[in-house]
């Protein structure tokens, strides 16, 4: 991105102890964690809070990762798989606690991962067994608890749903940071032992910066091109249905399709990109007829009463995917006081809060990052399993 002389000379100076760039779930919560230490914190965004994926998702608070648990153990090793899974459990609990504290709409309705094929059913059974062995709540059923033609299900009783925009807005309103929005950041520089964040309206001087840009990170930090890539996800919402047909967070087809009924009766559904992975990349915000047709076919087969309900709205959002399916935290090589936390692989509601805490501890105290450390990516191969992904 470039900026003209005329635009730049209008930017005003702001000073803070720390600046957080990106006001999604990760940045809004990181700003709150930093402000809780007594620091003077600025939270800035190109648009407004929850303008990115955090305001466009399904609001599922799921424990888990992209991969099934037994596949995660095979792919990452047992210790890392267990630690990453535990981080998702703790994130979910933190999100529910914040929702309670701030009066954000949420429900601990459990989740059902539903198989549409026999091999998928076998994977769910293996996943449930591996989870149980490590003390994570999960129950396999070799039939469809919804009675809609699925083959089997994995039930996670403690999962739930939340209004993602309300949560981000509450974190911004109560988090104690100064919000500076409509301020597209176009450059970051190491400056006077700290960081200079050059935005369209404000140039922010701070001791340190936390970059919570997820899929947008490589646009600002070219070093991150190899770390996170933009992947589009699409959704729609129906008009309110005349009755309640679903009281859980459902996802199926290895997690590629996901659906729930909102408190006001609307049916929310997303996914449909499994056959269109080559097309569903980049930052372009639009829905496509072919992906929306996959969603319509799924509804026709498993929820025919919804297939006839009017669709009120369709939308898309941009997720940040890493080569191995786990989020990453690290320091920008050329700007040591800038820490990034990105790459939530379609699970940022489920992994973001606790990852943000780890990133803040790293920025403040150089706390070890362990499996979250970006350095783990040197020499890895792209992710093997693709379960449960937005
Ligand atoms: C359709 C869809 C459904 C999903 N469903 C779920 C789900 O049910 N459960 C789940 O766990 N996850 C889900 N996800 C994934 C989840 O939404 C993301 O992982 C999460 O929101 C990432 O949060 P974030 O704060 O890291 O990034 P974002 O929310 O994308 O925030 C990044 C912010 O950076 C700002 N920004 C970008 N560039 C600049 C710049 N140059 N200067 C200043 N600011 C900038 C953007 O405006 C944006 O506000 C879904 C995603 C999509 C798209």
Automatic annotation (TrEMBL):
InterPro entries: FAD-dep_OxRdtase, FAD/NAD-bd_sf
Entry superkingdom: Bacteria
FAD dependent oxidoreductase domain boundaries: 17-357
Pfam families linked to this entry: DAO (PF01266)
Organism: Ardenticatena maritima
Any one annotated GO CC term: cytoplasm
Protein name per UniProt: FAD dependent oxidoreductase domain-containing protein
């Amino acid at each position: 991105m470039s900026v003209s002389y005329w635009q730049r000379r209008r930017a005003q100076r702001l000073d803070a102890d720390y600046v957080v760039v990106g006001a999604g779930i990760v940045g809004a919560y990181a700003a709150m964690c930093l402000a809780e230490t007594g620091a003077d914190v600025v939270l800035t965004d190109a648009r407004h809070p929850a303008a990115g994926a955090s305001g466009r998702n399904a609001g599922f608070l799921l424990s888990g990762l992209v991969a099934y648990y037994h596949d995660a153990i095979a792919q990452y090793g047992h210790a890392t798989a267990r630690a990453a899974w535990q981080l998702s459990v703790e994130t979910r609990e933190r999100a529910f606690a914040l929702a309670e504290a701030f009066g954000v709409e949420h429900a601990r309705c459990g989740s059902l991962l539903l198989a549409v094929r026999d091999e998928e059913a076998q994977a769910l059974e293996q996943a449930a067994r591996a989870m149980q062995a490590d003390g994570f709540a999960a129950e396999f059923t070799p039939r469809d608890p919804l009675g809609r033609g699925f083959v089997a299900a994995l039930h996670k009783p403690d999962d739930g749903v939340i209004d993602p925009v309300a949560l981000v807005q509450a974190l911004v309103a109560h988090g104690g940071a100064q919000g500076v929005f409509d301020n597209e950041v176009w450059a970051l520089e190491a400056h006077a032992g700290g960081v200079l964040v050059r935005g369209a309206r404000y140039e922010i001087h701070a001791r340190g910066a936390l970059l919570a840009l997820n899929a947008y990170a490589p646009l600002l930090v070219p070093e991150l091109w190899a770390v996170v890539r933009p992947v589009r996800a699409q959704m729609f919402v129906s008009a309110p249905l005349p009755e309640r047909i679903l009281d859980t967070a459902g996802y199926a087809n290895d997690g590629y399709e996901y659906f729930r009924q909102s408190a006001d009766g609307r049916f929310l559904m997303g996914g449909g990109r499994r056959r269109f992975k080559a097309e569903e990349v980049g930052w372009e915000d639009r829905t496509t007829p072919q992906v929306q047709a996959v969603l319509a076919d799924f509804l026709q087969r498993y929820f025919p009463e919804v297939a006839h309900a009017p669709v009120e709205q369709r939308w898309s959002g941009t997720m940040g995917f890493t080569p191995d399916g786990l989020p990453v935290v690290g320091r920008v090589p050329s700007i040591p006081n800038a820490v990034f936390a990105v790459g939530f692989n379609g699970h940022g509601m489920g992994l973001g809060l606790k990852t943000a805490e780890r990133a803040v501890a790293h920025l403040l105290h150089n706390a070890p990052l362990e499996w979250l450390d970006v350095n783990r990516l040197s020499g890895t191969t792209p992710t093997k399993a693709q379960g449960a992904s937005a």
